[in-house]
Amino acid sequence: MKRSQKKQVSILSFTPNGKNLSQEVAKALQDRGYEVEQAVKCKGQPDSISVSLVEWTRERFFRKDALIYIGATGIAVRGIAPFVESKCTDPAVLVLDERGTYCIPLLSGHLGGANAMAREIQEDLGSRAILTTGTDVNQKWAVDVFARENHLWISDMELAKDISARILRGEQIRILIEEGGMAEGFEQREEIALLWENKEAGSLEEDGTEAKEKEEKSRQPILPHIYIGTRRPYPEKSVLCLVPRTVVAGIGCRKDTPYLLIEKAIEEALQEACLWKASLGKLTSITEKAEEAGILEYCEKNRLGWETYPARQLQALEGQFTESAFVRQTVGVGNVCERSAVCGLGEEGRGDASLLLRKQAANGVTVALAGGRWRVRFEAG
Protein backbone atom coordinates (compact mmCIF):
# COMPACT_ATOMS: atom_id res chain seq x y z
CA MET A 1 0.00 0.00 0.00
CA LYS A 2 1.59 3.27 -1.09
CA ARG A 3 0.00 6.59 -0.32
CA SER A 4 0.07 9.10 -3.15
CA GLN A 5 -2.53 11.80 -3.47
CA LYS A 6 -2.89 14.80 -5.75
CA LYS A 7 -2.82 18.18 -4.04
CA GLN A 8 -6.34 19.52 -3.73
CA VAL A 9 -7.25 23.11 -4.61
CA SER A 10 -10.53 25.00 -4.24
CA ILE A 11 -11.23 28.20 -6.21
CA LEU A 12 -13.95 30.75 -5.36
CA SER A 13 -14.83 33.63 -7.71
CA PHE A 14 -17.32 36.47 -7.30
CA THR A 15 -18.03 37.92 -10.78
CA PRO A 16 -18.61 36.63 -14.32
CA ASN A 17 -15.09 37.73 -15.28
CA GLY A 18 -13.75 36.05 -12.18
CA LYS A 19 -15.57 32.85 -13.09
CA ASN A 20 -13.96 32.87 -16.54
CA LEU A 21 -10.53 33.36 -14.98
CA SER A 22 -11.28 30.56 -12.49
CA GLN A 23 -11.70 28.16 -15.39
CA GLU A 24 -8.33 29.20 -16.85
CA VAL A 25 -6.59 28.82 -13.50
CA ALA A 26 -8.22 25.45 -12.90
CA LYS A 27 -7.13 24.17 -16.30
CA ALA A 28 -3.55 25.31 -15.75
CA LEU A 29 -3.34 23.70 -12.30
CA GLN A 30 -4.97 20.47 -13.50
CA ASP A 31 -2.35 20.25 -16.25
CA ARG A 32 0.26 20.43 -13.46
CA GLY A 33 -1.36 17.53 -11.61
CA TYR A 34 -3.56 19.33 -9.06
CA GLU A 35 -7.11 18.26 -8.28
CA VAL A 36 -9.27 21.37 -8.57
CA GLU A 37 -12.85 22.27 -7.62
CA GLN A 38 -14.48 25.58 -8.58
CA ALA A 39 -17.31 27.61 -7.11
CA VAL A 40 -18.82 31.03 -7.81
CA LYS A 41 -20.70 33.32 -5.43
CA CYS A 42 -22.37 35.91 -7.63
CA LYS A 43 -25.94 37.10 -7.97
CA GLY A 44 -27.34 36.34 -11.39
CA GLN A 45 -25.14 33.28 -11.89
CA PRO A 46 -27.35 30.17 -12.03
CA ASP A 47 -24.68 28.04 -10.31
CA SER A 48 -23.94 30.58 -7.55
CA ILE A 49 -23.41 28.91 -4.17
CA SER A 50 -25.91 29.70 -1.42
CA VAL A 51 -23.60 29.32 1.59
CA SER A 52 -21.77 32.32 3.00
CA LEU A 53 -18.14 33.14 2.29
CA VAL A 54 -17.11 32.02 5.78
CA GLU A 55 -19.11 28.79 5.56
CA TRP A 56 -17.54 27.92 2.20
CA THR A 57 -14.10 28.57 3.63
CA ARG A 58 -14.77 26.61 6.83
CA GLU A 59 -15.71 23.50 4.85
CA ARG A 60 -12.37 23.55 3.01
CA PHE A 61 -9.77 25.30 5.15
CA PHE A 62 -8.66 22.21 7.05
CA ARG A 63 -9.16 19.71 4.20
CA LYS A 64 -7.63 21.35 1.14
CA ASP A 65 -4.01 22.05 0.26
CA ALA A 66 -4.80 25.44 -1.25
CA LEU A 67 -7.63 27.98 -1.48
CA ILE A 68 -7.72 30.57 -4.26
CA TYR A 69 -10.03 33.60 -4.16
CA ILE A 70 -10.59 35.56 -7.35
CA GLY A 71 -11.63 39.04 -6.26
CA ALA A 72 -10.65 41.70 -3.73
CA THR A 73 -7.97 40.85 -1.16
CA GLY A 74 -10.27 42.01 1.64
CA ILE A 75 -12.85 39.36 0.73
CA ALA A 76 -10.27 36.62 1.12
CA VAL A 77 -9.03 38.05 4.42
CA ARG A 78 -12.55 38.09 5.85
CA GLY A 79 -13.11 34.54 4.67
CA ILE A 80 -10.01 33.00 6.22
CA ALA A 81 -9.68 35.18 9.35
CA PRO A 82 -11.63 32.88 11.75
CA PHE A 83 -9.54 29.83 10.83
CA VAL A 84 -5.91 30.96 10.64
CA GLU A 85 -3.82 28.98 13.15
CA SER A 86 -0.23 28.24 12.20
CA LYS A 87 2.09 28.30 9.21
CA CYS A 88 2.72 24.62 9.98
CA THR A 89 -0.91 23.63 9.35
CA ASP A 90 -2.65 26.40 7.40
CA PRO A 91 -3.27 25.75 3.70
CA ALA A 92 -1.85 27.91 0.95
CA VAL A 93 -4.14 30.88 0.31
CA LEU A 94 -3.86 33.04 -2.81
CA VAL A 95 -5.78 35.95 -4.29
CA LEU A 96 -6.08 36.98 -7.94
CA ASP A 97 -7.84 40.06 -9.23
CA GLU A 98 -10.60 39.21 -11.71
CA ARG A 99 -8.48 40.31 -14.68
CA GLY A 100 -5.64 38.00 -13.64
CA THR A 101 -3.10 40.83 -13.50
CA TYR A 102 -1.79 40.05 -10.02
CA CYS A 103 -1.48 36.86 -7.97
CA ILE A 104 -0.85 37.41 -4.25
CA PRO A 105 0.05 34.62 -1.79
CA LEU A 106 -1.68 35.57 1.48
CA LEU A 107 -0.97 32.59 3.70
CA SER A 108 1.55 29.73 3.93
CA GLY A 109 3.81 31.16 1.27
CA HIS A 110 6.62 28.72 2.04
CA LEU A 111 5.45 25.64 3.94
CA GLY A 112 2.04 25.56 2.29
CA GLY A 113 3.48 26.30 -1.14
CA ALA A 114 1.52 29.48 -1.90
CA ASN A 115 4.58 31.26 -3.31
CA ALA A 116 5.42 28.30 -5.53
CA MET A 117 1.83 28.13 -6.79
CA ALA A 118 1.85 31.88 -7.49
CA ARG A 119 4.96 31.38 -9.62
CA GLU A 120 3.27 28.54 -11.47
CA ILE A 121 0.23 30.72 -12.21
CA GLN A 122 2.56 33.50 -13.33
CA GLU A 123 4.31 31.11 -15.70
CA ASP A 124 1.09 29.65 -17.12
CA LEU A 125 -1.22 32.69 -17.27
CA GLY A 126 1.11 35.68 -17.11
CA SER A 127 -0.26 36.94 -13.77
CA ARG A 128 2.39 38.82 -11.81
CA ALA A 129 3.30 36.95 -8.61
CA ILE A 130 3.50 39.45 -5.72
CA LEU A 131 5.86 37.89 -3.17
CA THR A 132 6.46 39.66 0.15
CA THR A 133 8.40 37.10 2.23
CA GLY A 134 11.84 38.40 3.17
CA THR A 135 13.95 35.59 1.74
CA ASP A 136 12.09 35.78 -1.58
CA VAL A 137 12.39 39.57 -1.82
CA ASN A 138 16.12 39.38 -1.07
CA GLN A 139 16.65 36.21 -3.15
CA LYS A 140 18.07 34.29 -0.19
CA TRP A 141 17.96 30.60 0.68
CA ALA A 142 14.81 29.79 2.72
CA VAL A 143 14.91 26.90 5.17
CA ASP A 144 11.14 26.28 5.14
CA VAL A 145 11.00 26.19 1.34
CA PHE A 146 13.95 23.80 1.31
CA ALA A 147 12.20 21.58 3.87
CA ARG A 148 8.93 21.53 1.94
CA GLU A 149 10.57 20.74 -1.40
CA ASN A 150 12.57 17.88 0.14
CA HIS A 151 9.68 16.56 2.28
CA LEU A 152 11.58 17.20 5.52
CA TRP A 153 9.94 17.60 8.93
CA ILE A 154 10.95 20.78 10.80
CA SER A 155 11.72 20.25 14.50
CA ASP A 156 11.19 23.84 15.70
CA MET A 157 9.53 26.65 13.77
CA GLU A 158 10.94 29.30 16.12
CA LEU A 159 14.47 28.14 15.32
CA ALA A 160 13.54 28.17 11.63
CA LYS A 161 12.43 31.81 11.98
CA ASP A 162 15.70 32.64 13.76
CA ILE A 163 17.71 31.08 10.94
CA SER A 164 15.83 33.11 8.34
CA ALA A 165 16.49 36.26 10.38
CA ARG A 166 20.20 35.41 10.57
CA ILE A 167 20.36 34.94 6.81
CA LEU A 168 18.63 38.27 6.21
CA ARG A 169 21.16 39.93 8.56
CA GLY A 170 23.94 38.61 6.34
CA GLU A 171 25.13 35.79 8.61
CA GLN A 172 26.29 32.43 7.29
CA ILE A 173 24.40 29.28 8.33
CA ARG A 174 26.20 25.97 8.91
CA ILE A 175 24.27 22.94 7.63
CA LEU A 176 25.44 19.49 8.68
CA ILE A 177 24.45 16.44 6.64
CA GLU A 178 24.08 13.17 8.58
CA GLU A 179 26.63 10.53 7.67
CA GLY A 180 25.22 8.49 4.77
CA GLY A 181 23.02 11.32 3.50
CA MET A 182 23.55 12.94 0.12
CA ALA A 183 23.17 16.53 -1.05
CA GLU A 184 22.60 17.30 -4.72
CA GLY A 185 22.62 20.56 -6.65
CA PHE A 186 24.54 22.50 -4.00
CA GLU A 187 26.42 25.52 -5.26
CA GLN A 188 28.64 27.63 -3.01
CA ARG A 189 26.73 30.63 -1.69
CA GLU A 190 27.51 33.22 0.94
CA GLU A 191 24.65 32.38 3.29
CA ILE A 192 25.28 28.62 3.56
CA ALA A 193 28.26 26.49 4.61
CA LEU A 194 27.67 22.79 3.99
CA LEU A 195 29.33 20.29 6.35
CA TRP A 196 29.47 16.50 6.37
CA GLU A 197 29.27 14.30 9.44
CA ASN A 198 32.12 11.85 9.98
CA LYS A 199 31.27 9.75 13.05
CA GLU A 200 34.34 7.54 12.68
CA ALA A 201 36.65 10.53 12.88
CA GLY A 202 34.45 12.22 15.46
CA SER A 203 34.44 15.48 13.51
CA LEU A 204 32.76 17.62 10.91
CA GLU A 205 34.16 18.09 7.44
CA GLU A 206 33.57 21.17 5.32
CA ASP A 207 34.33 22.21 1.78
CA GLY A 208 37.14 24.58 2.83
CA THR A 209 38.95 25.01 6.16
CA GLU A 210 37.28 27.95 7.88
CA ALA A 211 35.15 25.89 10.29
CA LYS A 212 38.10 23.61 11.12
CA GLU A 213 40.35 26.57 11.88
CA LYS A 214 37.71 28.13 14.15
CA GLU A 215 37.28 24.85 16.00
CA GLU A 216 41.04 24.46 16.51
CA LYS A 217 41.36 27.98 17.85
CA SER A 218 38.50 27.60 20.33
CA ARG A 219 39.27 23.93 21.08
CA GLN A 220 35.51 23.40 21.22
CA PRO A 221 33.31 21.71 18.61
CA ILE A 222 31.50 24.08 16.27
CA LEU A 223 27.81 23.19 16.32
CA PRO A 224 25.81 23.49 13.11
CA HIS A 225 22.75 25.70 12.92
CA ILE A 226 20.89 22.99 10.97
CA TYR A 227 21.25 19.22 11.10
CA ILE A 228 19.68 17.18 8.30
CA GLY A 229 19.17 13.57 9.31
CA THR A 230 17.02 10.97 11.01
CA ARG A 231 18.89 10.85 14.36
CA ARG A 232 18.65 13.16 17.38
CA PRO A 233 22.32 14.00 18.00
CA TYR A 234 21.96 17.52 19.44
CA PRO A 235 19.91 19.32 22.13
CA GLU A 236 16.67 20.20 20.41
CA LYS A 237 16.73 23.85 21.53
CA SER A 238 20.15 24.61 20.03
CA VAL A 239 20.11 23.03 16.56
CA LEU A 240 17.28 22.99 14.02
CA CYS A 241 16.71 19.45 12.81
CA LEU A 242 15.29 18.74 9.36
CA VAL A 243 14.17 15.14 9.24
CA PRO A 244 13.78 12.96 6.13
CA ARG A 245 10.92 10.45 6.44
CA THR A 246 12.96 7.46 5.32
CA VAL A 247 13.01 5.02 8.25
CA VAL A 248 11.03 1.78 7.91
CA ALA A 249 9.63 -0.06 10.93
CA GLY A 250 9.18 -3.77 10.40
CA ILE A 251 6.61 -5.21 12.80
CA GLY A 252 5.27 -8.57 13.90
CA CYS A 253 2.55 -9.17 16.48
CA ARG A 254 -0.02 -11.55 17.82
CA LYS A 255 -3.42 -11.49 16.15
CA ASP A 256 -5.65 -8.61 17.34
CA THR A 257 -2.93 -6.84 19.29
CA PRO A 258 -4.40 -3.55 20.59
CA TYR A 259 -3.38 -0.27 19.01
CA LEU A 260 -1.82 1.06 22.22
CA LEU A 261 0.62 -1.85 22.41
CA ILE A 262 1.56 -1.31 18.76
CA GLU A 263 2.14 2.38 19.42
CA LYS A 264 4.19 1.72 22.56
CA ALA A 265 6.44 -0.83 20.85
CA ILE A 266 7.17 1.37 17.83
CA GLU A 267 7.85 4.52 19.79
CA GLU A 268 10.09 2.72 22.30
CA ALA A 269 12.07 1.31 19.38
CA LEU A 270 12.51 4.78 17.86
CA GLN A 271 13.64 6.12 21.22
CA GLU A 272 16.09 3.24 21.69
CA ALA A 273 17.63 4.01 18.29
CA CYS A 274 17.72 7.79 19.00
CA LEU A 275 15.57 8.46 15.94
CA TRP A 276 12.98 11.17 15.46
CA LYS A 277 9.44 9.84 15.30
CA ALA A 278 9.06 12.05 12.23
CA SER A 279 11.74 9.99 10.47
CA LEU A 280 9.32 7.07 10.19
CA GLY A 281 7.98 6.72 6.66
CA LYS A 282 6.24 3.37 6.59
CA LEU A 283 5.44 0.15 8.45
CA THR A 284 6.03 -3.29 6.98
CA SER A 285 5.24 -6.89 7.83
CA ILE A 286 4.32 -10.28 6.38
CA THR A 287 1.26 -10.71 4.12
CA GLU A 288 -0.69 -12.49 6.88
CA LYS A 289 -0.73 -9.22 8.83
CA ALA A 290 -2.15 -7.09 6.02
CA GLU A 291 -5.48 -6.50 7.81
CA GLU A 292 -4.20 -6.28 11.40
CA ALA A 293 -6.46 -3.60 12.91
CA GLY A 294 -4.01 -2.15 15.44
CA ILE A 295 -1.31 -1.65 12.81
CA LEU A 296 -3.75 -0.14 10.32
CA GLU A 297 -4.96 2.30 12.98
CA TYR A 298 -1.39 3.36 13.78
CA CYS A 299 -0.66 3.97 10.09
CA GLU A 300 -3.86 5.95 9.65
CA LYS A 301 -3.28 8.17 12.67
CA ASN A 302 0.32 8.87 11.73
CA ARG A 303 -0.18 9.05 7.94
CA LEU A 304 2.26 6.25 7.26
CA GLY A 305 2.59 3.85 4.37
CA TRP A 306 1.84 0.15 5.04
CA GLU A 307 3.37 -2.66 2.99
CA THR A 308 3.38 -6.42 3.44
CA TYR A 309 5.37 -9.16 1.74
CA PRO A 310 4.95 -12.94 1.29
CA ALA A 311 7.13 -15.27 3.36
CA ARG A 312 9.13 -16.41 0.34
CA GLN A 313 10.18 -12.83 -0.47
CA LEU A 314 11.24 -12.20 3.12
CA GLN A 315 13.16 -15.47 3.29
CA ALA A 316 15.05 -14.66 0.07
CA LEU A 317 16.82 -11.69 1.66
CA GLU A 318 20.52 -12.19 2.20
CA GLY A 319 22.08 -11.30 5.55
CA GLN A 320 22.27 -12.29 9.20
CA PHE A 321 18.85 -11.86 10.80
CA THR A 322 17.57 -12.74 14.28
CA GLU A 323 15.91 -16.09 13.58
CA SER A 324 13.15 -17.85 15.55
CA ALA A 325 12.26 -21.50 14.99
CA PHE A 326 8.74 -20.86 16.33
CA VAL A 327 8.14 -17.98 13.91
CA ARG A 328 9.47 -20.07 11.01
CA GLN A 329 7.13 -22.90 11.88
CA THR A 330 4.18 -20.51 12.21
CA VAL A 331 4.54 -18.27 9.13
CA GLY A 332 7.25 -19.88 7.02
CA VAL A 333 10.10 -17.43 7.67
CA GLY A 334 12.35 -17.20 10.71
CA ASN A 335 12.11 -13.43 11.17
CA VAL A 336 9.39 -11.01 10.11
CA CYS A 337 10.24 -7.61 11.56
CA GLU A 338 13.89 -7.31 10.50
CA ARG A 339 13.41 -8.81 7.07
CA SER A 340 10.28 -6.82 6.23
CA ALA A 341 11.94 -3.56 7.39
CA VAL A 342 14.78 -4.14 4.92
CA CYS A 343 12.29 -5.10 2.18
CA GLY A 344 10.52 -1.81 2.77
CA LEU A 345 13.64 0.09 1.70
CA GLY A 346 13.38 -1.27 -1.84
CA GLU A 347 16.49 -0.58 -3.90
CA GLU A 348 18.04 1.31 -0.99
CA GLY A 349 18.11 -1.87 1.11
CA ARG A 350 21.48 -3.47 1.81
CA GLY A 351 20.52 -6.59 3.73
CA ASP A 352 21.14 -6.63 7.47
CA ALA A 353 23.58 -3.70 7.04
CA SER A 354 20.51 -1.49 6.64
CA LEU A 355 19.21 -2.30 10.13
CA LEU A 356 19.30 0.65 12.51
CA LEU A 357 17.79 -1.42 15.32
CA ARG A 358 17.48 -5.20 15.45
CA LYS A 359 14.41 -7.01 16.75
CA GLN A 360 12.93 -5.62 19.95
CA ALA A 361 10.21 -7.73 21.56
CA ALA A 362 7.64 -6.81 24.24
CA ASN A 363 3.98 -7.61 24.93
CA GLY A 364 3.69 -9.85 21.89
CA VAL A 365 5.00 -7.18 19.49
CA THR A 366 8.33 -7.27 17.66
CA VAL A 367 9.82 -4.19 15.97
CA ALA A 368 12.97 -3.59 13.93
CA LEU A 369 14.07 -0.39 12.22
CA ALA A 370 15.87 -0.01 8.89
CA GLY A 371 17.21 3.01 7.05
CA GLY A 372 18.41 3.44 3.50
CA ARG A 373 20.37 6.08 1.69
CA TRP A 374 18.58 9.41 1.34
CA ARG A 375 19.29 12.63 -0.49
CA VAL A 376 18.23 16.27 -0.46
CA ARG A 377 18.45 18.77 -3.26
CA PHE A 378 19.41 22.42 -3.03
CA GLU A 379 18.10 24.99 -5.44
CA ALA A 380 20.65 26.78 -7.58
CA GLY A 381 22.63 29.46 -5.81
TrEMBL record:
Pfam families: CbiG_C, CbiG_N. Residues 56-136 form the Cobalamin synthesis G N-terminal domain. GO terms for biological process: cobalamin biosynthetic process. Residues 247-370 form the CobE/GbiG C-terminal domain. SUPFAM superfamilies: CbiG N-terminal domain-like, CobE/GbiG C-terminal domain-like. InterPro entries: CbiG_hydrolase (IPR052553), CbiG_N (IPR021744), CobE/GbiG_C (IPR002750), CobE/GbiG_C_sf (IPR036518), GbiG_N_sf (IPR038029). It comes from the Bacteria. PANTHER family: COBALT-PRECORRIN-5A HYDROLASE. This is Cobalamin biosynthesis protein CbiG. It comes from Suipraeoptans intestinalis.
